[in-house]
Amino acid sequence: MALKVERSTPESRGFAVFLVLALAALAALPYYAGPGAMRLVAEMAYYLALAQLWNLLAGYAGLVSVGQQAFVGLGGYSLYYLTSEFNVHPLVALMLAGPIAAAISLPMAFAVFRLRGAYFAVGTWVLAEIFALAISLVERLGAGSGMSLTPAIVRQIAPDRAGRELAVYWIALAIVVIVFAAAYLLLRSRHGLALTAIRDSEPASESLGVDTFRTKLMVYVVTAGCTGCVGAFIFLQKLRISPEAGFSVNDWTVVVIFMVVIGGIGTLEGPIVGMLVYFGLRETLAQYGTWYLILLGMAAVAIMLLAQDGLWGLVVRRFNLHLFPVRRHLAR
Amino acid sequence: MTDWLNILIQGALLGGLYALFAVGLSLSFGIMRLVNIAHGDLIVLAAYVALVVINATGLYSIATLLVVVPAMFALGYALQRWLLNYTLSGGLLPPLLVSFGISVIIENLLLQIFGASTYRLQAGAIETQSFALGGIYIGAYPLLVFATAFAAIAALQVLFYRTGLGRAFRATSDDADTAELMGIDNRHLYAVAMAIAMIFTAVAGVLMAIRETFDPAAGPIRLIFAFEAVIIGGLGSLWGTLLGGMVLGVAQAVGGALSPTWEILAGHLAFLVVLLLRPSGLFPHTRD
Amino acid sequence: MSLLKTTGLCAFYGDFQALFDLDISVETGETIAVIGANGAGKTTLLRSIAGALHCGRAMVEFDGEAIGGLSAHEIVRRGIAMVPEGRKLFPSLTVEENLLIGGYCGRGGAWTLARVYELFPMLAERRAIPAHALSGGQQQMAAIGRALMSNPRLLLCDELSLGLAPLVIREIYARLGTIAREGTTLLIVEQDINRALDQSARFYCLQEGRVALQAACRGFARETITRAYFGI
Questions:
Q1: pLDDT, chain A, mean
Q2: Residues of B in contact with A129 (CB under 8 A)
Q3: C4-230 CATH, one of 3.40.50.300, 3.40.1190.20, 3.30.70.1140, 3.30.70.1110
């Protein structure tokens, strides 16, 4: 009897169909919902992208960074600098922001990979602070008060406001789809297998020939680049950047970490769940001030103590459900 | 010339405050291998507790320590015993993320209760007094803070190397399982360690709140200063932490002479330089 | 009533069962040997008794009290001390500090620091040096001294002879004899059968988590033991 090894399951095939339909519905959103809904969905999209990237870094490569806001800010400032100094088209600048952030992350890795565990985490944070402070000294970049995207630049995306909102919305969707696709393909590849091995046991993987340093470096640089690109998009949408906003640990790291941890770290599905929980809490409780953040904090603490695999982890354990077919198994 | 000397002295004395920030972090890492991300927020919490005490009783700011220290001591014991202890066996993520969650909870609770306005505690005449030696001015308050840091570390050294409790701390830090076989109740000991760390956190919080303004979001940067002082000084050495704090303080003072933004940046850069050139710190002591 | 009794003792490492319904008893003042090959469950047995490994409450009885599953520090207070496999001295502490830590639980008795130094004079000579700087044999003596400092009624010795030269082993076992004569009950776990059997009144031979053989040591045929040891 021949044994067949496959990846997809009936659930994942079903989910793939659902995903296509959902994406089509979302892409068509502008035709049945107003600009407010579009902005919200775009925000959900870029937060999901950031969450998935942090998940790759921390949940798979084991690099718990509390400093990814560095790349959000660097990506944003790259966009603003390229468009204002060099008259680069904003969408081209958007695509260049990624490689720029990735390039800057390389020497950063050299400094910060000397630290381990929690010290690595705080070290990445300090690096982000260094960037924020350094940029606030540069007059060209607006110093401490920041800079805006001029109307001339903004008009290059689309001549009228409605067109711009449409373009920005679809770019947001494209970004999150691309990030997901990239993460999915990475995890299915040889590198993905190496990552899972490293996550489970670094010494064991090393003894089997996995070059853990290079794999981790690659993940760090790639996620830095993608985060930079997302950062550029975020500030393209916001039309204004400042060191405080661009490098805000609360906006770009605290929230992202909560999403991943509550949803389920180390799974592709987890960040989706976490993102929905976050926005659910925020939209319903925002009127009461920052109580939703306190609840989020308590939820994260509870999850870490009681259900380390997050909400999606509970689903996996109960139903053995995998929607993104990354693992191999014998065909049923 | 004397200007620069004054700046150096100011920075060195400031290092005392940073060492006080760092002591709690050093203790909890040395004994429990726990880096408490909420550490900075606990320093700020202590300042707010002092504020509440002052508003309720009109007590002199430094005297509020009589209340703040026991309160933070109890909080530290409870936090470790009934929350953080449960994160110690799960690997890297739980302690980091739980303390991260606690940090966010504290910050936002303080924001909800006290609002975003900044406060500062008064200490009266001592804030502006200074001693003059030739052309050099030594502020009375910074000197007090530095002396406190020095005394704190000296006291901890005595605790660690000359008492049974300190012996138990060192044994548990070496090998927690075997320490249990010697009759040491780890869960209780860790809680005591955190409680002691909180004594210094409380002192640091009150002394900081007299020197500079604080608000609910002031925690994270204190964590970073504490962290930098520990790394520059070298893991595992309390006197190293004092020296690390002084290096940080001097770097900031020198940077601050150029511009306010350069003040903090210079400190970060000093940290970066030590990280790149001597990652184990200037006076390392620990096998990790 | 036995000083120590295990009834149906089962122990697990996660899902893996290491001990199956072990029944062992030790009378006050006895020296008992537990022998067996690697992985037979000897260390697991000691760790279960000492509280380092969890088991059912009624499975271990000490002086009439059910102590199974209590945490290690509570069991030390009741009078059971362990000399762990591999010595496990505290490297940051000096020799004397290691001994003092042994007395942390505050059980008074004949075994004071002075008395331990009498038993192991070479430790007194080296009292102020870091424990990890001692030779293997000296470390073993320090580990025994450390355990004695809690004035145990029952001393559990895990693989004392591991990695030591025969001359040193002989010296250590001579000291064990002194300790036994002063009234301490000993439970000795060893891979080296001869030493253990020479020292003890009775022995248990474990094989794959079960008692394969138990008898008095005197006059017992070694081949029978060998067969039980290897499960033949």
A1: 89
A2: 224, 264, 268
A3: 3.40.50.300
